[in-house]
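Incident log, structure service

09:12 report received: a user says their structure output differs between two submissions of the same chain.
09:20 pulled the input from the user's history:
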Amino acid sequence: MTEALTLAVFGATGATGAEVVRQAAARGHRVRAIEPGWPDDPGLPEGVETRVADVLTDDLSDVIAGCDVVISAIGLGLSPRTVLSPPPLYTEGALHMIDAMRAQGLSRLIVVSASFVETLDRGPHWFRATTGLALERVFTQMGEMERILRAAGDIDWTAVRPGWLMQGDLTADYTVTPDVIPQDLIRTRHADLAHFILHCAETGDWSRATPAIARAEPASATRPDTVLKELLPDKLRN
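09:34 re-ran on a clean worker, output below:
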């Protein structure tokens, strides 16, 4: 039985964050879910604590006090605005989390980055070209976040680098490699990513490293029409 941890989860209502919260609660961990705002009934697992904080504007010290691990699953939804000028969630958010962790004497931080920070040379040519065009600024910001982490010598960080994220049930049969996903893989399930994040939280594995995670998925999940529909929603294609 894994020792129960107290986990602070930023981005707790996003696709990956919600999986982290659900799986962590099921594993018996104490979970503190953090978002800028919450509805009256957030629909979280029993026992999950909610806190309100904005990673760009708030002092985060109080919301992470007493936690063992800070997990950042914050992300940017695709829209014309975020594609052209993404807000500094990854960079400023990381700086604010690190400041708060130092104030509270905490050291373990796990964040979600992307394999494409390392290289866009993964998947078929059409995928590389479209991904690079749509998300260049986001990947650049993620790379800057990783540089911030490397410069923080007192922080025991892990920047997990998934491939192109997708929905799907937890499989736990994903592949983990240093820095970049294998050449023939481009997809990662949110549920599998959450599973690996919790593994890193529980074991301390991949300290000050950038593990890349992906899985061989059915052809239907990797064909052009499927990926392009996710990558370029109607409001970006029109």
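09:41 both user submissions now match this output. Likely a transient worker issue. Closing.
09:42 reviewer note: DSSP finds nine helices and ten strands in the chain. The first helix runs from residue 15 to 26.
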